């Protein structure tokens, strides 16, 4: 049975080891292998966004709730991360830098029970392709809110790089949720 407290403790132990990323990947895979158990431990939030389950200098654990059909701008993290989906679907586009902007180089669709490990300098954007919240555990190998090097995001239309904007990020979750509420329930 999944327990938030045990999961946090296991991740804290893992990040103190030399094989932190792989161990955390295994812990996240184990957690989302029983999605009903995670849903029970993490009730659906009233609002889309991200809830901080743990924050420390070498580890951040977030409970993500993407709004229905939400599309989220490309960004990097400046630290490794592991994503595990326990409800819905997260479509990732991966990008690489070009002299002027970025270009898309790959994609991966993550469904319930899927886990992805993202490298320190990966650039990705995310779409929730279903008409309900997509929910995930995101584990970061550092303080997500104070990255060791400045984080970037890219304008969704022009793909121009700009500094990561946390306030705008929160605003986009709220906007996406408001749009979904205005549209009403769907078959998804
Ligand atoms: Fe991300």
Describe the structure.
The protein is an alpha+beta fold and 188 residues long. The chain is 27% helix and 37% strand. The protein is built from four helices and eleven strands, in the order αααβββββββββββα. The chain has a five-stranded antiparallel beta sheet. β1 and β2 form a beta hairpin. α1 runs antiparallel to α2. 32% of the residues are buried. The mean pLDDT is 95. The structure holds fe (ii) ion. Fe (ii) ion (FE2) binds next to loops.
Order of helices and strands: HHHEEEEEEEEEEEH
The end-to-end distance, rounded to whole angstroms, is 28 Å
Largest sheet strand order: 1-2-9-4-7
The amount of helix comes to: 25-40%
Please state the average pLDDT score: 95
Structural class: alpha+beta
Low-confidence stretches: none
Q: What spatial form do the alpha-carbon principal axes imply? A: globular
Q: Ligands in the structure?
A: fe (ii) ion
Core attributes:
globular, 5-stranded antiparallel beta sheet, 27% helix, binds fe (ii) ion, 37% strand, 4 helices, 11 strands, 4-stranded antiparallel beta sheet, 188 residues, alpha+beta
Summarize this, please?
The chain is an alpha+beta fold. The protein has helices at residues 4-15, 20-32, 35-41, 166-183; strands at 49-56, 59-66, 71-76, 81-87, 89-97, 102-111, 115-118, 123-127, 134-140, 152-154, 161-163. It has a five-stranded antiparallel β-sheet.
Ordered list of secondary-structure elements with their pairings:
Layout: H1 4-15, H2 20-32, H3 35-41, E1 49-56, E2 59-66, E3 71-76, E4 81-87, E5 89-97, E6 102-111, E7 115-118, E8 123-127, E9 134-140, E10 152-154, E11 161-163, H4 166-183
Antiparallel strand pairs: 1-2, 2-9, 3-8, 4-7, 4-9, 5-6, 5-8, 10-11
Helix pairs in contact: 1-2
The structure holds fe (ii) ion (FE2).
């Amino acid at each position: 049975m999944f327990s938030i407290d045990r999961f946090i403790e296991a991740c804290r132990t893992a990040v103190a080891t030399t094989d932190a990323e792989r161990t955390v990947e295994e812990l996240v895979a184990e957690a989302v292998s029983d999605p009903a158990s995670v849903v029970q431990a993490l009730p659906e939030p009233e609002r889309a966004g991200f809830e901080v389950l743990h924050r420390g200098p070498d580890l951040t654990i977030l409970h993500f709730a993407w709004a229905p059909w939400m599309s989220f701008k490309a960004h990097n993290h400046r630290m490794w991360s592991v994503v595990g989906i326990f409800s819905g679907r997260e479509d990732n586009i991966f990008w690489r830098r070009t002299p002027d902007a970025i270009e898309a180089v790959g994609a991966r669709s993550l469904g319930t029970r899927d886990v992805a490990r993202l490298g320190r300098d990966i650039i990705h954007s995310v779409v929730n392709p279903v008409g309900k919240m997509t929910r995930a555990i995101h584990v970061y190998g550092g303080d997500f809110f104070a990255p060791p090097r400045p984080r970037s995001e890219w304008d969704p239309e022009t793909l121009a790089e700009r500094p990561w904007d946390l306030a705008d990020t929160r605003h986009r979750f709220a906007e996406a949720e408001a749009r979904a509420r205005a549209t009403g329930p769907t078959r998804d």
